[in-house]
Amino acid sequence: MRLLPLFLTTSIVAIGGFGLYQAGYLDSWTDQPENVFVAANAPPSNGNGGFSASNTPPILAQATPAPSQTPSIPPHRGASLPQVDETALRYFANRGDTRRLQAEIARLKALYPQWTPPADPLAIQQNGDPELERMWRLYSENKFAEVRKAIGDRQTKEPNWQVPADLLDRLAVAEAREQLINASNLKQYETVVRVASGNPSLLICSEVDVLWRLAEAFAKTDRDQRATDAYRYILTNCEEGEAERLATIQKALPLLPRTQLDTLLATEKTDASGAGEFVSIRDDLARKSVSDAGQDAAQIIDQKELSIVENLARTENKASDSLLLGWYNLRRESFTASEQWFRRANTAENTAESAQGLALALVGLSKFAEAELTLYQWRDTSEEIRAVYLAATANLLAVEPPVPLAPEVLQRIVPEVARARDPANAQQLGWYALALNQFQTAARWFSTALEWKPDDEPSAYGLALTNYRLGENAAVNEIQAAWRGRSERIARLRDASNARPGGRTTAPPTSDYTPMQETGTVSRSPAYVAPNDNEVGSPSPPRTAEADPAPVTRLPRVAPRPRETAAPVRNTPSPRGCTSTVAPESLSAQAALNRGWCLMEINRPLEAAPAFEVALQRGSAKIREDAAYGQSLAYLRAGLSKEAAVAAAKSPQNQQRTVELRTSLLSSQALDSFEAGRYVETLLALDERARIAAERLDLMTLRGYAYLRLRRLNDAQKVFEAVAATGNSEGRRGLAAVMQAREAQ
Q: Which listed site, 95, 99, 330, 638, has its alpha carbon 20 to 30 Å from 244?
């Protein structure tokens, strides 16, 4: 982050009981964005939580400020000691409000250095003014509006009555605090900074909540360095308890980048045994680093942090820590380590996530049977877990040479394949049956796979090969005719050198298996049956398909994938998988989302929009968010701005996507309005867009022509001059059009 010039000031007034008040140290935060809040080391205390003028160096200092920037010295300093109003002390003591009592004592000592606090504030005599006493009582009860009303009523009745300046000052500060807190709760962060800049007396250690809120406002408005300085000021200067210091770091955790957090952690104190006060924070940061690295294989983390989480997982035996390490190692294809950590998590707490991770690690180790068994009980938990289960079963069936499966295993697999209508598993059941010479069963499975996915060339090849072995030449001829020009190996099926024993060909080792969810209609559900060579059936001929068939028969191993996706990650996305015609309503939520993005890649937005709609209706919150975003982009690409706006509102988006969509929608709206001759609406849309994003040259040109059509020639000229100054020829054309319009007047 670029280091910006620091705000300069030297005058300090000590106020607030637990920290320092820098007079005017926020004076220009809103006007000069380059100013940075910098906390210096705290000076020695005067014993009362405040600091005298003689021993308080500036909190923010780099050089002497200009004379106009130096706050004036309060008139009571150096003058004869006036009578000190101790009314507030009495009320705070009477209410048992120790924090406010100490803050008031520190404030009065800062204002009146020769004043000595009373030994018993409760013994302070009332000032003989019952109405003023009532005002102070209302103030101590936080009834600020009633205090204002009481002051106004008395001034009406007694025009010569003077409101104590102390009461007015404290009332103004309290109201400012209330305004700042309300703005913070409403996430109006610029207002928080503005109120703080106008009320620097709030920015003291006794108002640590205000400092926390100001730091948050800085972080939320992309001023990380200022947020860091605010948090560091608390940790360096404020004599808060251990809980407040820990809370300061915890509040900074979700707001600041790691480099800034390390700056705050450097202020850590240690106890007599040498243990740091922020050890729990460091543990959480290590967990976060490992978690982030579990989502991104390219992310490199400090080995020390990895060791911290490993030690926590072994000592505390929390399933959550073991899961983090399991996903971290799985993402890096360290399948052995991943299996160990997922197994540890699964033993500590048998959950769907731990079973899913363990199954993926087992698949990576080619332990497909154990992966299927591990995940079977959780198969209906989510679409993602069902996809992992089907991937494990497909890989189990694809093992060469075929592994004899117990009847109970097949009885688990077959109903799930039928229920999921998964063509990849149906195809592998066909190959499995063919390897066992169960030709009738193999034909049924290959036919079923083709009914679910008509463009599945491996299933068509398997069906043709099965019929060839059965001597069903007519069926073979029919399949060859349907795939003529699209599959060389089906055309050359009668060449015995093309086929391996068991009917499989060697598959390219580079593909990752993705369970296909794009299903068609099937008239029956297949069932695994015992071989019966005397029973010969006539399988249904395969349908034609639009996509070029992929020459893959042998099912490759499933690639491990991150938790947030519902299908294994491909190294290179290919649009080929969405060129066939499929009813989006027949897809699962994740499959519909994947198909939508695939269609967007091949520039078919009007087909992508219905796929995203299916994902919106059926998916989880994350899937709905992505689907709404995708559908908005699809409609924008198709030029349907109204539909895009409706789609964008179907699911909440993160800030970046919200700004992106809002910007695109307003651009489209401006163009539509201009083409329809609604030039005022064009300008309104462009003005709204300019509030959230810089205006592009093409939109500036559009603005100029909108002004021109509205005969606002001076405005049009200014815009075109700005465009022309960039060297853009459209600006010169616009200026010529303005000149012609002037001449025509």
A: 95
- Report the chain's terminal Cα–Cα distance, integer Å: 54
C-alpha–C-alpha distance, residues 206 and 722, integer Å: 51
Task: Judge contact between 448 and 522, C-beta under 8 A.
Answer: yes
**Per-residue confidence at 275, pLDDT binned at 50, 70, 90?**
confident
For residue 91, count other CB atoms closer than 10 A to its CB: 22
Q: Please, what's the b/e burial string for 668-703 (b: 16 or more CB within 10 A of its CB; e: otherwise)?
A: bbbbbbbeeeebebbbbbbeebeeeeebeeebbbbb
CB half-sphere exposure, 613, CA atoms < 13 A: 16
Q: Is 503 left (phi over 0), alpha (psi -120 to 50) or beta?
A: left
- 279-313: pLDDT as tens digits: 888 888 888 889 888 888 888 888 888 999 999 99
Q: What is the DSSP string of 207-262?
A: GHHHHHHHHHHHHHTT-HHHHHHHHHHHHHH----HHHHHHHHHHHTTTS-HHHHH
pLDDT at residue 124, rounded to an integer: 61
The answer on pLDDT for 392 being more than 60 is: yes
How far apart (Å, rounded) are the C-alpha atoms in residues 426 and 342?
A: 30
Helix (H, G, I), strand (E, B) or coil at 405: coil
SS3 call for 556: coil
Please report the DSSP string for 677-688 in residue order: T-HHHHHHHHHH
Retrieve residue 219's tokens: 């972080």
Residue 43: how many other CB atoms lie within 10 Å: 17
For residue 349, count CB atoms less than 10 angstroms from its CB and return exposed for 0-12, middle for 13-18, buried for 19 or more: middle
pTM to 2 decimals? 0.48
Residue 180 clears pLDDT 80, i.e. is over it: yes
Q: Is the peptide bond before 401 cis (omega within 30 degrees of 0)?
A: yes
DSSP state, residue 77: T
The helix or strand, by DSSP H or E, that contains position 214, with its residue range, turns out to be: helix 208-220
In the prediction, which pLDDT does 128 show? 64
pLDDT at res. 281:
83
Question: How does residue 164 score in pLDDT terms, banded at 50, 70 and 90?
Answer: confident
pLDDT of residue 722: 87
DSSP state of 506: P
Q: What is the Cα–Cα distance from 645 to 655, expressed in whole angstroms?
A: 16
- Tokens representing 682 are 């064009």
Counting beta carbons within 10 angstroms of the beta carbon of residue 274, is it exposed (0 to 12), middle (13 to 18) or buried (19 or more)? exposed
- Give 309-353 pLDDT, tens digit per residue: 999 999 988 899 999 999 999 998 899 999 999 999 999 999 999
622 CB-contact burial (10 Å; exposed 0-12 / middle 13-18 / buried 19+): exposed
| Cβ 127 vs Cβ 87: under 8 Å | yes
Q: How many Å apart are CA 481 and CA 222, to the nearest integer?
A: 64
**Burial of residue 158 (number of CB atoms within 10 Å: 0-12, 13-18, 19+):** exposed
Which burial class, exposed, middle or buried, applies to 38 when counting CB atoms under 10 A from its CB (0-12, 13-18, 19+)? buried
Report how far residue 456's alpha carbon sits from residue 285's, in angstroms, rounded to the nearest whole number. 48
Report d(CA 49, CA 106) in Å as an integer: 6
Q: Which 3 state secondary structure label does DSSP give 527?
A: coil
Q: What is the distance between the alpha carbons of residues 105 and 97, in angstroms, rounded to a whole number? A: 12
Rounded to whole angstroms, the Cα distance separating 716 from 705 reads: 7
Q: Residue range 202-221: average pLDDT? A: 90
Distance CA 439, CA 113 (A): 102
Instruction: Measure Cα distances from 745 to 677, 703, 714, 742 in Å.
Output: 21, 21, 14, 5
What would the pLDDT profile of 527-557 be if each residue is shown by its tens digit? 333 333 333 333 333 333 333 332 222 222 3
| Interatomic CA distance for residues 123 and 665, integer angstroms | 68
Closest among 581, 582, 482, 496 to 540, alpha carbons compared: 482
pLDDT at 12 over 60: no
Task: Please say whether the beta carbons of 39 and 59 come within 8 A.
Answer: yes
Dig out the tokens for 654 from the structure: 């993160």
Amino acid at 598: C
